[in-house]
Backbone:
């Protein structure tokens, strides 16, 4: 049998641990790798030195699992690359009044960039992760395709839209063929110590989930643009904000306004240092413009295409019409208006379980 | 995953296996002669005798008296104690310490800690080979300098510092001189009778002794503060029940490594051969460290156009263990502070590898290592070329 070598990105969690075990069972030469992407000294917000993605505890878990599987295991240092491609961008995006999606960038530039390169250097043919997604090959198109994971609730294809064809050709997602409970069962069956481990937090380099605290630590100069005006839909000044980067579209709490009906952030104008608020109806968007498109499972469509568009990690895909624009951009028109389309977030377009492609939201289009 | 059945260990600067003879000497002290060396009864006395025998062996090879050798938990403790102990003793009147940029982290980070406590530290720069110039040390002296700490041989590149001259400079000014001799002990001669060294750190596991034991040589009359307080062990200088088995192992390993001549000559031959074969087989290789004046068993080199971790991990996948100099707790590779201090170009500092030979290595392993390295470098450079042209 032709034994392919695969580098598995191991976070220390149950999904990537089982991914490594499954690949080994399937006959691959498996090398476990944990990426060191940041350190607590730089990011701050350490709740507990023993937790979090890049803590020593995590490394020990991954090392222990690798040792039990009898596979080589290494920690690779991608901190500089991560800072340049992910965490710096995270800051810039907020300073631009947008809400970034660091996991997408980490997948696109770190895992399917730097890690893939490192894997090749170690003589590996492929890389694998514990993501709940599936890769296939469509003979009729001669194209690699990306599908949602079998487990609809756990599907992570949303964060993977940035992978190019060459990357997909070198990718394995063993966990995508299973449901999360099945993955835990496998972990227990083979005695992985990570079987019962909790899900990891949302943004790994912000361990306390307080992005405002993170922004202030990374950019002490942010104090300078401390406050500004909060305006209503008619541009009347109705309050003060504490620095626009600390607000997100759709936010209701913490606005410090005394108004009878609930109001929400509807726009962030970085240039004017203003935060606009409105009612629920003012948050409704009929569509969006997104750029930096990556066409995943299909080549760019020449005619408008019916898709299901997913505008954030936690929202379900919604029926929409996709139209290709100039400059590697797309326009998405929802069948039903959507709440709080947020620039900086990814929009991923699906056709059933196929990821058609993805892009970064530039502009929300107001419902007429 | 690899076909290699026998692994090759070329990382003896990191640690060594315990010599079988040292191990045999240690074993009775776990289950038979287990007394506490400070106990008055016969059990204690047996342990005490073994402890003092070990101490004598170590004192003998560096020209010290047994009373000047104090066992510690290792090189790091010895370095910490020497420096912090001196600072605690002199801190009321004097605030200045001189060390070098290429020191081991056990010295550098200790000095950084003291800096935060209000001490002033001067970090002497080194030349392109990583050596400290005694004149530079002279130029840094201040009225309130109380300690000069300069390593004997560097752990990453092997360069040997002129510590006799530097010790003399310190001695002439009545300043304490400490040297971290962890890498040189057992490999090149050290004689505290010749050099006016006041404090010297050594460790057992670099010379085929057990981990977890080291020693601090403290010249008679040297005054530094205690580091560990408690019982009156080690002549009331270092509290804590003595690790008899480890001390015996350290003593035995010391005797073996100083038996006949230094084994450096055999290792030098393997090292020189490896260097010559790599230079002949791979283009764009630069040897780091002093060409002659370096540890005989160590080779540090940079290979243009490839990253050390890719080299190191690829070699490991083939069963060949080398190092890139230093690693942090998580096992990630950081650019070497030593190579940076030597002014090595950043890309070359990031493509450095350290090979360090030990007494179990043989010629066939040199050939296997060179063969593997050529294959890996060729592959990595091919990838780089493809990426650069893409």
Residues:
């Amino acid at each position: 049998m032709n034994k392919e070598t695969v580098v598995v990105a191991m976070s220390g969690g149950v999904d990537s641990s089982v991914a490594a075990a499954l690949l080994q069972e399937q006959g691959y030469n498996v090398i476990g790798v944990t990426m060191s992407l940041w350190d607590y000294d730089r990011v701050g917000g350490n709740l507990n030195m023993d937790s979090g993605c890049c803590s020593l505890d995590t490394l020990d878990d991954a090392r222990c699992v690798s040792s039990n599987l009898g596979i080589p295991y290494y920690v690779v240092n991608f901190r500089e690359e991560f800072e340049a491609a992910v965490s710096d961008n995270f800051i810039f995006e907020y300073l631009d009044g947008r809400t970034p999606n660091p996991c997408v960038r980490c997948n696109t530039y770190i895992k399917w960039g730097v890690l893939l390169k490192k894997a090749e250097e170690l003589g590996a043919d492929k890389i694998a992760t514990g993501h709940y997604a599936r890769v296939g090959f469509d003979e009729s198109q001669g194209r690699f395709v990306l599908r949602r994971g079998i487990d609809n609730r756990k599907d992570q294809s949303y964060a993977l839209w940035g992978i190019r064809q060459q990357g997909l050709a070198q990718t394995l997602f063993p966990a995508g063929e299973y449901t999360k409970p099945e993955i835990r069962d496998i972990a227990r069956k083979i005695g992985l110590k990570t079987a019962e481990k909790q899900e990891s937090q949302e943004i790994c380099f912000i361990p306390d989930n307080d992005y405002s605290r993170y922004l202030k630590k990374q950019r002490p100069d942010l104090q300078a643009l401390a406050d500004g005006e909060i305006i209503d839909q008619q541009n009347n000044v109705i309050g003060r904000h504490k620095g626009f980067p600390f607000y997100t579209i759709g936010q209701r709490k913490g606005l410090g306004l005394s108004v009878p009906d609930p109001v929400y952030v509807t726009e962030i104008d970085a240039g004017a240092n203003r935060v606009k608020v409105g009612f629920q109806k003012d948050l409704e968007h009929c569509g969006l413009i997104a750029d930096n498109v990556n066409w995943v499972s299909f080549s760019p469509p020449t005619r408008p295409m019916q898709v299901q568009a997913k505008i954030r990690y936690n929202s379900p895909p919604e029926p929409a019409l996709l139209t290709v624009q100039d400059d590697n951009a797309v326009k998405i028109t929802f069948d039903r208006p959507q709440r709080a389309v947020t620039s900086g977030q990814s929009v991923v377009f699906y056709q059933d379980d196929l990821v058609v492609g993805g892009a970064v939201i530039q502009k929300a289009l107001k419902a007429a | 995953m690899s076909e290699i059945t026998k692994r090759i260990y070329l990382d003896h600067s990191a640690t060594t296996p315990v010599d079988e003879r040292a191990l045999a000497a240690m074993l009775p002290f776990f289950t038979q002669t287990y007394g506490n060396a400070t106990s008055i009864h016969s059990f204690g006395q047996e342990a005490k005798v073994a402890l003092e025998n070990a101490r004598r062996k170590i004192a003998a090879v560096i020209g010290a008296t047994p009373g000047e050798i104090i066992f510690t938990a290792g090189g790091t403790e010895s370095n910490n104690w020497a420096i912090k102990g001196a600072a605690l003793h002199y801190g009321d009147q004097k605030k200045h310490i001189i060390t070098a940029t290429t020191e081991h982290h056990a010295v550098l980070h200790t000095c950084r800690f003291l800096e935060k406590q209000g001490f002033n530290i001067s970090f002497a720069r080194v030349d392109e080979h990583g050596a400290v110039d005694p004149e530079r040390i002279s130029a840094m002296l201040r009225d309130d300098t109380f300690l000069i700490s300069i390593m004997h041989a560097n752990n990453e590149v092997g360069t040997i510092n002129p510590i006799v001259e530097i010790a003399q400079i310190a001695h002439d000014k009545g300043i304490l001189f400490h040297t971290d001799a962890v890498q040189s002990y057992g490999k090149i001669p050290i004689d505290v009778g010749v050099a006016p060294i006041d404090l010297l750190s050594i460790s057992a596991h670099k010379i085929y002794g057990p981990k977890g034991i080291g020693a601090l040589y403290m010249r008679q009359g040297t005054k530094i503060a205690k580091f560990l307080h408690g019982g009156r062990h080690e002549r009331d200088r270092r509290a804590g029940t003595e690790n008899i088995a480890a001390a015996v192992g350290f003593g035995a390993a010391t005797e073996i490594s100083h038996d006949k001549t230094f084994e450096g000559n055999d290792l030098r031959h393997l090292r020189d051969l490896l260097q010559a074969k790599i230079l002949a087989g791979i283009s764009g290789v630069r040897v780091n460290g002093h060409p002659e004046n370096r540890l005989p068993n160590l080779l540090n080199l940079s290979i243009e156009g490839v990253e050390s971790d890719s080299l190191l991990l690829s070699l490991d996948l083939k069963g060949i263990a080398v190092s890139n100099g230093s690693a942090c707790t998580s096992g990630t590779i950081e650019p070497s502070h030593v190579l940076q201090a030597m002014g090595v170009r950043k890309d070359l500092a990031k493509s450095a590898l350290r090979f360090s030979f030990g007494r179990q290595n043989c010629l066939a392993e040199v050939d296997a290592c060179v063969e593997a390295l050529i294959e890996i470098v060729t592959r990595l450079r091919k990838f780089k070329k493809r990426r650069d042209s893409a």
Remarks:
- Chain B is about 40% helix and 15% strand.
- The two ends of chain B are 32 Å apart (CA to CA).
- The mean pLDDT of chain B is 94.
- Chain B has two domains: 8-17+262-389, 20-257.
